[in-house]
Every structure is written in C-alpha cells, then in structure tokens.
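Please fill in the sequence for the structure shown.

STRUCTURE ENCODING:
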C-alpha cells in the first residue's frame, strides 16, 4: 500500500494494526481460536481468501460495536478502521479480483466532530522562541522557527535535507504521500537557518551528511528527539502537560497566518500541504507572490534570535 497508493509508513502501519484487530475479532466470532487465548496472541497468519469471503457487512458493524464498547474506540479511531477495511476489501475486489463481492461497500463512516485546533497565542509563541538556550541554541531556535512560520509536520521537518534549502529563499518539503511542495522562507526563517548552518556539525556517515538537522550524536535528528526539544521549551514557559506538541506548532503557524495576515484559505491550504480545502477550513492555485506574501504575513516573520544570550557549554 505504501508503494501503490503513496501512503506514509505510519499510515500503512496503522492500517495493518486495524486489519489485525479485525482478523482476530473474526476468528473469535467464527470460533476459530481457543476461548482462553489472549486477544493479542491470536495468530493471523492463517487468514485465507476463503475466510475473507465469509465476511459480511453485519460482521463489520458488529466489529465496530466491539471496538466501541470493549476497546473504547472514539469516532476518529472507528473512522480510521472503516477506512482500513474499505481500502483492504476494495483492493481484493477491484484490483486483484480475489473476491467477487465487497462486503464493506455500503459501510458508513462514523461522523467526526470538527474540533478547533489547539494552538499557541502570538505572545506564547514569542515566549517559546525567547526561551531557547543551551549548547544547541541555534539548531533548536531554527527548528521552532520553521514550525511556527512554515507550519511543517513533524515528519516533514525531520526529513529536511540541506539541498531542500534553496537560494531563492524557498524550501522544498516532502509531505504526505511523498508529495513535494515549495514553501517561501520569510526573513525570520532565513536568518535562523543561516545562524544554524554556521554551527551545524558535519556527520561522518554518508546517509546523515545531507540531513539539515543533526543530533549530538552527529546523526539525523529523529522524530522523538524533536518532540523532546519542543517539550523542553514548552515546559520552560509553563505550557507542559497541556496538550501542546510539535504538531500544535503547525496549528499555531496556520492560525497566526490566517488571523493576522489576511491570508486566503486556498493559499493556506497550499502552504500546509492539505489535499482537500475542507481540512484547511478549520482555520476559519494561486500565484507564487500570494504564497510569498502569506509567509511574510506571519507576525513571527521578523522575530530573530536575540544576541544577548550566550551559548552554554555541554
């Protein structure tokens, strides 16, 4: 699925977990496993096409009832399971033709409430940037600046390479489904990158040499490490334990641009790399100039690292 449909490794893994749960449930329902077998220990390597051909829409609705009551799945988790099953059985019927009928063709997806995204205020965002210090000050400041100005996803930031930073003040970002987009770098981003590159370590391994952000081990900075960096500074300004994360900085960037910059919602969609406009509308094709104006409209675009703090030794 990762190769065929361009799904991210994380999405593919989630689909696998959903299908595994469904297969285990079905084996219990069809009395194909011992009653005292722990759910997580039920094997699924014996699932066959004949077994799958017995699945009915009723089975699937009963499975949804099971994950709601027994596993306390919320609407979002049930919606993803519906998507996983729909993609799986559609593949078996329409692509490989191993099944004659699709049992989930009329499966309804649980409706999800659109909740407002959690984000930092402008004042909190500035406090977060001003809280950066320590031996990796330039790197950490650059990371937070890109999150808050460009609205990057965590995986997008971690995946940035040196050659993604272009001389025309744009940045190439590889988003979901390996789709590339260009983001304009405002003056704050340009300055933060410039200051970081002055002190960026030079990794020994070939694979890490191209990475933009490097850890203290001279390797590409990983997702968890970036999360830890974000949490470190959130804690410094008293926002730890309140549901804020690296992804909430993406929400912050989008919200600040929309609220303060009079940015067209369609421009915001392109900046964030959303596939559908409906995803972006929660924050209420265009020319390159409009996208550049949107980047500059972020009120943090002029905030640069203070020279008053001194780097601490390790």
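FILLED IN BY: designer on duty
SEQUENCE:
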């Amino acid at each position: 699925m990762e190769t065929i449909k361009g799904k991210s490794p994380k999405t593919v893994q989630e689909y696998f977990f959903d299908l595994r749960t469904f297969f285990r449930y079905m084996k219990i329902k069809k009395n194909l496993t011992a009653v005292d077998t722990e759910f997580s220990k039920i094997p699924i390597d014996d699932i066959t096409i004949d077994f799958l051909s017995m699945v009915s829409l009723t089975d699937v609705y009963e499975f949804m009832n099971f994950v709601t009551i027994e596993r306390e799945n919320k609407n979002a988790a049930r919606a993803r399971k519906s998507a996983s099953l729909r993609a799986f059985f559609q593949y078996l019927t329409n692509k490989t033709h191993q099944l004659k009928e699709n049992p989930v063709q009329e499966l309804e997806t649980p409706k999800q409430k659109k909740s407002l995204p959690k984000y930092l205020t402008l004042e909190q965002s500035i406090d977060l940037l001003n809280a950066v210090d320590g031996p990796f000050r330039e790197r950490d400041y650059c990371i937070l600046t890109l999150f808050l100005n460009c609205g990057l996803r965590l995986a997008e930031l971690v995946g940035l390479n040196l050659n993604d930073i272009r001389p025309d003040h744009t940045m190439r970002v590889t988003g979901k489904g390996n789709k590339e987009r260009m983001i304009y770098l405002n003056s704050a981003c340009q300055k933060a990158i410039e200051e970081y590159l002055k002190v960026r370590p030079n990794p020994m391994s070939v694979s890490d040499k191209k990475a933009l952000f490097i850890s203290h081990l001279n390797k590409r900075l990983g997702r968890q490490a970036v999360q830890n960096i974000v949490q470190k500074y959130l804690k410094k300004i008293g926002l730890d334990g309140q549901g804020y994360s690296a992804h909430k900085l993406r929400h912050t960037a989008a919200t600040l641009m929309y609220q303060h910059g009079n940015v067209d919602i369609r421009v915001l969609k392109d900046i964030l790399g959303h596939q559908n406009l409906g995803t972006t509308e929660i924050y209420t094709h265009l020319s390159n100039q409009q996208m550049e104006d949107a980047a500059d409209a972020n009120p943090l675009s002029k905030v640069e690292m203070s020279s008053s703090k001194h780097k601490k030794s390790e």
